[in-house]
Amino acid sequence: MLIKLTGGTVYDPASGIDGQQQDIYIQDGRIVNKPVEDIQVDREYDLKGKTVMAGAIDMHTHIGGGKVNIARTLMPEGHRADPVARTHSTRSGCGHATPSTFVTGYRYAEMGYTTGFEPAVLPTNARQAHMEMADIPILDKGGYIMLGSDDYLLRMMAAKKDQKAINDYVAWTIHAAKGIGVKVVNAGGISAFKFNQRRLDLDEQNSHYGVTPRAILKTLATAVKELGIAHPLHVHGCNLGVPGNMNTTLDTIQGIGGLPLHLTHIQFHSYGTEGDFKFSSGAAQIAETINKNKNITVDVGQIMFGQTVTASGDSMIQFINHKHASPNKWVTMDIECDAGCGIVPFKYKDQNFVNALQWAIGLETFLLVDDPWRISLTTDHPNGAPFTSYPHLIRLLMDRSFRNEVLSTIHPEAQKMTTLASINREYSLQEIAIMTRAGAARLIGLKDRGGLGSGNWGDVTVYTDNADRQLMFEKPAYVFKDGELVVKDGKIVHTKWGTTHVVKPDFDVSVEKDLRKYFDRFLTMKLDNFKISDDEITEDGRGSLTVHPTKGEAV
Amino acid sequence: MAEITEVPSPFCGIGTDDLTIQVDGVLLKVTKNGCTVNTPAFEQGITDTRPRVDGKEVNLGAAVAKAAALLKAANQPVIGGCATDVSGMRALLALADRIGAVVDNMNFTGARRNFLVLQDSGWINTTLTEVKNRCDLLLVVGVDIEAFAPRFFEHYLWNEASMFLDDTGKREVIYLGQAPSGNASTSPNGKKAQVFECPLSALPEVAAVLRALVKGNPIREALAGGVAVADLQAIADKLKAAKYSVVTWAAGALAYSQAELTVQTLSEMVKDLNSQNTRSSGLTLGGKEGDQTANQVCGWTTGYPARMRFSSGFPEYDPYLNDANFLLDNGEADAFVWVQAFNAGAVPPVTAVPTIVVGRSGMTFEKEPDVFIPVGTPGIDHAGHAYRMDNVVAIRLKKLRDSGLPTTAQVLSAIEQAL
Hints:
The complex is a heterodimer. Chain A is 33% helix and 23% strand.
């Protein structure tokens, strides 16, 4: 099967193509060079005047796992307001803040997204995360394995085990839980909460293990680097949402000693304590520090006004946040001496000073970080806003007058506390393509996604140019997944199953000797029953595993 | 003959995965770590292997075709039971979506007492490994745990080693309402549980007074629901003094009207404790025969727990009106599918509407269903996944024997294909 996409204007930062008119050929799922003359084109799409990009990649979106399903169950009123009917090619479901799995796949694809990564896969809940993601059609997916409050790691650190032993444990866990990266959430804080500590600063000790968040970050960031995992340690920092936490964030960056770190939903970690309300923007200083420290990448976690439900592994902070629950219902869980979670519905209001300033802080961050290769476009779905708000966010970034128009409607004191009105930057299409495609792929280590050069998989999104960028990005003319047309005029026309992206870093198998004893003594599952086998991912015919090489490993 | 070790059980709800099972052809024998719940569930023999239509044996294709024809002719089909593994539930929901069916898990009336609370005010809950390593006080409300899961105490309280407790035998166990039927809750060093009995119907009052005492509100009566307020005060004091108390209940055991309000009182009490500078968590007992599995898969597929309908073309949830028994009794259903792959004793309610049973081999019916298709049991006849009671850990079920029985997923998908 040979497909020709003819005459579109191509934005492919991965190949350095910035708005050039080019034909693209897809053969049997992959993009190929222009074939020799005599091969017949089976299907041609005339894309003259259209904008062509690779399929978009959401590198941080809560789309699968226990906390997402609790969030779904918690909010039937949200689902009632957004029912999704069955069609001849799609399943029924529901949408809004935490859509059902099928609708998650459809709505992402309908916006031109073809890949999403669940950032908080608890090892003990990894089966569920993968089973839920297996029911998300069209998208490729993957997960970052959450460590840092797990008893085994903290126990190893308290016993001053060497880095090599920790690397083996980290790699073993990635294998067992089937991840592509490692995430740490409020390092050590989820564990500390179980010992009744209610806050844990960067240099504060966990009362049981005597280990600090700073030490955990350093240990895990080193493990990720030494194991050759492409995606840097994915860090949800200490003190999320706490006024003044910008200092924690700056300290985290400065203290990591140049190791690669990805600071996620940085907006929630960029708060100062100035002004009448003792809440101010730290975005300028954070952005400046990011600009200077090339080892740092971020995603924003932009908030949008409206109802959502926050679902986080950070049980310590979410327990504090329950005071803001709207509607007033919430869940906190301690999980398996491994992790935790907290689910709190939020209604962000533009006439609430704090919410309005959070909105501005996110946008300031986008606009003040110079290098689009080091910043990803996220709302920390659903925590800042549902992913369906991306087209609106893109318009805010690309259209200064629209941005200032919205700015003029938010809480007046928040307007005074942001420099947003004075920032002239408007994102270009190429910069959007970097943030949502090439940059995200590079950041996770996907070699053949996020680009349109020969050898890439045929994940392609075609937009109809429109000065209103929200309308343009809301409804692509065509979306291809692995070379198959899945969306036409913003509607699903065909579905398929994506692959699951993982890494399998090397480790010393003798790590299982101690682990097996540990499982038998302390845990509630046998070690061999804990490990997820490859066939668990593929046996229902819902996809495949794609193993990405770690650095230093032959492809 | 083969011996399979570390076998996980979908029957007890507590996720025991240390059984040793001897396999001789299709005969199973639990040789290690069995219990009164798991051993008979694993050892039950295969009787039916062939599907039946109108009581006559047919091949699978004919049974599937007949089932599809009955469903095609129906205006409002209802799928009950919903006792199967994750793949079975996936296929069940795909079929239900296609035919516009009501989906109702057989244990939902019990589980509803939890869901109503979760959806109204939420809770702070914990999981079994936390209990095993951290719990220093277990308050058991209205349930005889050892009858529910015989190995609960052995596994999760009287474990030899614990991460954070020096001596697990020093843990305190307090029963409120129901007294235990045996001595499983007595610690290995002989420490007995405290028991404060009261009738089930008094639990709302007892729980409310206990919560009030936790909050420091004065109670002027000497008795609450037959329990001395001084005793409840002592329990409240212990909850406040504990480092990590766990309050547990089984929604199914709270079989009285509006028991969700008792669950809510307990859950809010746990929240109160966490606001008083200590830690406490709830623990909901359940998870037998796929009930958590049904609610989980239905949750991610539709957004709602497993008492919902597709009859409008999209999912709609009503935890009362979509009760399968209610719909059958009211004449609101015109076809009934019963899916129960775990328990041959759990047969469908007798109904006049055309009935299709996709069930564990060995079911005996008061009224022969129009179609009966025996299926394999997840964790015995085929691999699969099931959720443990704490709703976080999904266990990987093993295939133990070659029985040739199809899986629930295969049968339900075949019916969907045949429509």
